[in-house]
Hints:
By secondary structure, the protein is α/β, with parallel strands linked by helices.
Amino acid sequence: MANDDKAGATRLCVLKFGSSVLGTEADYPAVALEIYRHVRDGEKVVAVVSALAGQTDSLLEQAERVGGAAPDGLVARLARVGELHSAALMALALSKVGVRACTMDPDEMGLVAEGAPLDSNLVGLDSAAVWAKLEAHEVVVVPGFTAQHAEHGVVTLGRGGTDLSAVFFAARLDAHRVRLIKDVDGVYAEDPAKNPGAQRFSQMSYAEAAEASSGLIQPKAIRAAELEDVLIEVAALGSAEATTIAHLPALKSCPPKPERLRVALLGCGAVGAGVLGYLQSLPDLFEVNPVLVRRPAKYGEPGRYTAQLSEALAGKPDLVVELLGGADHPAELMLAALHDGAQVVTANKAAVAKHYDSLHACAEAGGGAIRYSAAVGGGAPILETLARLDGDVVAIEGVMNGTCNYLLSRLAEGWSFDDAVRQAQELGYAEADPAADVDSHDAADKLSVLIREAFGVALLPDRIAKQSLRDVTPEAAQAALARGEVLKQVGRCRLLEDGRIEAEVRVVALPAAHPLAGARNEENRFLVTDARGKVHEVYGKGAGRWPTATAVFADMMDAQRALLGRVSPAAQSAPLKLLA
């Protein structure tokens, strides 16, 4: 994922997830998607998590059953277990979708509190230790309810303690905001469950928040935020809408009514099945047409799948998701959808590279839009990084094909090329016909798209110089290894002084310490050099069901917010601190 220099240069967001959104184990994928949305927008994230709903109460009851009127210090040691468990599960869910994440326990980050064992207040944090982890990861997940204590060893922070932890982390790490993710999309003047027409605050002062948000935000957290001038946002999962709490006058309005969007999903292979799972988890937002597949009977759910394109596209869908193979036929389908004004999302790099101009022209003419962040890098947000740099790029190099990573590793172990390909096919890393990967066509497609996005220049894949892995011998791979080097398939492009673009895909020997050399299996890594010479590192899993499906669905959620006239969090220009 994207990695800039360090604290001060990096945008850091603290996200807090309580038991209102972490109800069961099944909720972690949706929370991982929310975190990924911020990572792809260029933010580092500290994710503060609560225990699953009811788990802390269950542990307290267990403490009473087993220990009776036990000392609070002993009870705190058991009560904290749910938070540690939840933090580990959250990091695992993030790893599954390709986000580089780790957990930190209180002792690892010097998180210290003072006060009673079951209701302490945070007073200390080793900020350097947290930033050191953020240097190597996009997300650090921390338990929000427990800390170290000089006298009691460990303590808990009382009810709603994760809100206080989130504010504390934001203040000590100089985060530009703390976003509290709740089961409502902001602070309301009245209970929206009792009054559907209740107005929601778009902004409010700390004092007004303390009065209006009773039961929603821990009062100690609001007081701490005011003291430290920490900007708080209160929002729901997936929403760009939020209540901002700072030194601001109160403003409120009626929130927009949610609308279900009609979705056409074209293709249901490994990635499509993952996207369908995400869609089915949000029935209030999406109505899914019958999914286009070759053999509906294979899926055993009559009515949910179809082989007829007309049925998949029935009802003029708002959002068309293209996950088919090939270039020309998928492009025809996308062009037709864009002509009708639909939002289109695809992971098809071949179609985008070959038909880039016509797809964009049709989107502009029809009033729709096309999104394809998963087409290059999968879960590695390289296209988002280029968009943020907005043309201020002079060079890109990257390892962008997981199949080649695997094959070159096997060659270095002495495997023959044919045996390595056969093993890759058995493991699912290579297609039945591996030519697109091993002959560098796949990387050239991706590099062509990157050149378009970075430089605005049309350089078709067939005009990019390519080297095939068939030219690489096991002896060459082993000789590189003996020299302390690693063979990698690297795509490179750079802007020349005369405005021309130089581009190639080659197998090169990289020093083992080179940032690109560490890419393994499906991992993609990119280095983007801007006009000032700063190198932006972008890492992530470039293939696989869940990393790719998560990138596709993040595009879909961007499209959903665009259709409803909302602005993504990255587009908001909130200052780092709002002072009185």
